[in-house]
Amino acid sequence: MNAMPQRDGLLTRVARRGGRADRSALGAWFWDIDWLLLILTLFLIAIGLVAVAAASPATAQRYSDTTHKMAPLYYFWRQLMWVGVSLPVLFVVSMLPADRARRMALIGCAGFLVMLALVPVAGVTVNGARRWLGVGVAQFQPSEFLKPCFIVAVAWLLSLKNKEGLSPAIVGALTGVLTAIVAMLLMLQPDFGQTVLFCTVWFALLLISGASARMIGLLMGAVPVGLLSAYIFYSTARTRIDAFLFPTTTDPAEHFQVNAARATLTAGGWLGTGPGGGQMKFRLPEAHTDYIFSVIGEEFGLIACGIVAVIFLAIVVRVFVKLLDEQDDFRLLAAAGLAIQFGVQALISMAVNTGLAPSKGMTMPFISYGGSSMIALSAGMGLLLAFTRRNPFVLRSPYVVKWSGE
After folding, report:
1. What confidence score (pLDDT) does residue 332 get?
2. Over 90: is that where the pLDDT of 376 sits?
3. What is the pLDDT at residue 260?
4. Which pairs with CB-CB distance under 8 Å and at least 24 residues apart come from 73-82?
5. Would the pLDDT of 264 be above 50?
6. How much is the pTM?
7. Other CB atoms closer than 10 Å to residue 245's CB: what's the count?
8. Which class for 361: exposed (0-12), middle (13-18), buried (19 or more C-beta within 10 A)?
């Protein structure tokens, strides 16, 4: 007797909440987007602006000369400009349907892989490394833009196993060849840190995709062989590892960066010296990029560093919680890979700043200064938001309620 009135009441509530049924591009994005993930990302970007403002005077002083004196906040204003360019990228990419986002990333992977191959030939050398293409303000780092596209490409390939007549072994081999090509091109720059990051994400995606125990065992056995080979044959890796493991037997200049970063990080104690009060930061070679975390520690304290680390962790955990009930293999792998890349890059940067890992030239996502890094990270986070979009109204729609006569 009471079933029909209750059903009518539910339909009335649907009509009243018609705004959630708005399936225009903007309406769908508003109701589908993971607002917590977006807010945490925007919070990191805001923290990054404050951190770059704190590091900017030290970097401006280091790179000023007698003919060109940089303003103390030169790098802050440039970073503010890059944020202004990057935020629209983040929002536009996050609005894309999953299939269109995947198509865009696959095309981007092919394009940026070609550009990465051009770097050793036509690239621009900065601080002893050839990693950039372009001229003047138009310079960009192809490897930064390749990262999110590479992850989506690997996720797509792994999602094809047992489909289209492709066996898991063939798919695993294809992703391995792609990763090997990227690693080889990165080592030519040289960029040991990015090489480690790409390989780590690829291995993690193989694990998540359910690769055979035999394949995982072979890869784990190849890790020490690869590291030993890098130490013997790759001078950049050998120099970094020696400076980290044997500081008393290497050139003091090679170990200076790690010592300076750790000293700067702890100079402010728990609460920091206050904005603009840091002095140790003026000793850092790259205060605004590689060692931005140490600047945060000196001026805002170790508690602030802990808060930043928790935000990174919260973003990664949030993504994996969202993926617990994901049924689509591609979306699962793509979102997981993007979150892992984001988290591992932050972890490596923090480990270098605290002296727990050798110097790798790894920037901290959304915190460090850099145009290529900021735009590429925004595109990657946009992809992550696109692949984790869910419609809360559809999932809880009264139309799918099982009527029990209550």
Report:
1. 94
2. yes
3. 83
4. 75/288, 75/369, 76/49, 76/52, 78/369, 78/371, 79/48, 79/49, 79/52, 79/369, 79/374, 80/49, 82/370, 82/371, 82/374, 82/375
5. yes
6. 0.87
7. 10
8. buried
